[in-house]
């Protein structure tokens, strides 16, 4: 059994920005309405979530009251900002103290860049639902985003002048979010996607499985949070112009760009209803006039959704292919060396060590061997 890859993630922002609410929606199955009863975070609350690829996310939710933030930047600086993989900083779009909020963020960014220069920085500008009616083109968001990019550039320049910024490679990224819609899932899925080990290997297997099933796409979700981990074909956040040939031929360009996040929100809501009725959610399968869909467990920590528009596709055949591939896909979560399943995709990939006994025996087909 491989040692899990532990990634430290800081969740920070001023008090009232919505950090704990979004954490509760994503990781504790709260509805947006449920978060109204949450209190302020006191100091630092830690939690852990296991994902595919042997990833354990160590989430540090840091209280945003001024006294706590001052403490993080002084006596707790080394503890808080060392060995960080990702900083997720949350701003309230309705804040009337933007200049002060920016100064706090700049101080935190300096502390992070000095102690964990290779950390990614994701900024979530939250509570967008409160301003969208009066600002439908989101001009205020773009202004805030530009201010934040300028702060990041200033911090980089200052550290570089001091000879400390050579290892800073990650670019600050901004997302508009609200706990009342799917934007929250899109932001968190994008963050988690960058942390998953062996992500290109996972994507390659999903693409092979998609093609085997005569499908448009195969999408992988984390079982508890239902965040999107990866998809077949083109990258998770790609522009419609970058879709691969199978996606283009099957009409993926016309599909809703927010479909994965909407599915996450719907399934989590349905799972919550099942729990209230003392039932357990297992999966979903359906055959419509224009498509066939299954949403089934793939490994202990993941679900896979496969969508086919080919009239020959049957739910039973899709389920069979998923079940046949599940044990091999589960290896990515448990091992650094692949040694149990002969696989042409893994043989050509360098993300994991490949040491399958009998691999040179042509009489033993790989699971992805096209021969009957």
Automatic annotation (TrEMBL):
Please list the coiled coil stretches.
Answer: none
Name any one Pfam family assigned in the record.
Answer: Gtr1_RagA
> Superkingdom of the source?
Eukaryota
Question: Which GO biological process annotations does it have?
Answer: cellular response to starvation; negative regulation of autophagy; positive regulation of TORC1 signaling
Any one GO CC term of this protein is: fungal-type vacuole membrane
Note the InterPro entries from the entry: Gtr1_RagA, P-loop_NTPase, RagA/B
Keywords for the protein's UniProt record, in alphabetical order: GTP-binding, Nucleotide-binding
Offer an example of a GO molecular function term for this protein.
Answer: GTPase activity
User: Tell me, how does this one assemble?
Assistant: Component of the GSE complex.
The UniProt function text for this chain reads: GTPase involved in activation of the TORC1 signaling pathway, which promotes growth and represses autophagy in nutrient-rich conditions.
Family per record: Belongs to the GTR/RAG GTP-binding protein family.
Name the UniProt record assigns to this protein: GTP-binding protein
Organism, as annotated: Kwoniella dejecticola CBS 10117
What lineage does UniProt assign to this protein's organism? Eukaryota, Fungi, Dikarya, Basidiomycota, Agaricomycotina
């Amino acid at each position: 059994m491989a040692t899990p890859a532990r990634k430290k993630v800081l969740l920070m922002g001023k008090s009232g920005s919505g950090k704990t609410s979004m954490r509760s929606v994503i990781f504790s199955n709260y509805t947006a309405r449920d978060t109204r009863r949450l209190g302020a975070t006191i100091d630092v609350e830690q939690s852990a979530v296991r994902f595919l690829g042997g990833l354990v996310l160590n989430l540090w939710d840091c209280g945003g009251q001024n006294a706590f933030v001052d403490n993080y930047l002084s006596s707790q600086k080394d503890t808080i900002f060392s060995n960080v993989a990702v900083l997720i900083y949350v701003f309230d779009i309705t804040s009337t103290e933007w200049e002060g909020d920016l100064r706090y963020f700049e101080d935190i960014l300096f502390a992070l860049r000095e102690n964990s220069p290779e950390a990614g920085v994701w900024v979530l500008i939250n509570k967008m639902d409160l301003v969208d009616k009066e600002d439908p083109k989101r001009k205020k968001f773009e202004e805030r985003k530009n201010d934040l990019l300028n702060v990041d550039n200033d911090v980089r320049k200052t550290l570089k002048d001091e000879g400390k910024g050579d290892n800073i490679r990650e670019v600050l990224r901004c997302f508009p979010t609200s706990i009342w819609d799917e934007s929250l899932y899109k932001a968190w899925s994008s963050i988690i996607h960058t942390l998953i080990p062996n992500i290109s290997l996972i994507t390659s297997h999903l693409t092979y499985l998609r093609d085997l099933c005569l499908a448009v796409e195969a999408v992988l979700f984390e079982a508890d949070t239902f965040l999107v981990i990866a998809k077949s074909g083109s990258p998770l956040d790609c522009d419609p112009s970058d879709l691969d040939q199978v996606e283009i031929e099957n009409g993926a360009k016309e599909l809703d760009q927010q479909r994965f996040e909407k599915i996450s929100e719907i399934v989590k809501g349905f799972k919550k209803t099942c729990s209230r009725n003392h039932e357990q959610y297992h999966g979903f399968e359906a055959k419509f006039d224009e498509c066939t869909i299954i949403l089934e467990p793939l490994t202990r920590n993941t679900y896979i959704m496969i969508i086919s528009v080919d009239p020959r596709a049957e739910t039973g055949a899709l389920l069979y292919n998923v079940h046949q591939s599940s044990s091999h896909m589960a290896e990515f979560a448990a091992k650094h060396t692949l040694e149990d399943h002969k696989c042409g995709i893994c043989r050509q990939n360098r993300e994991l060590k490949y040491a399958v006994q009998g691999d040179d025996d042509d009489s033993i087909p790989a699971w992805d061997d096209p021969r009957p």
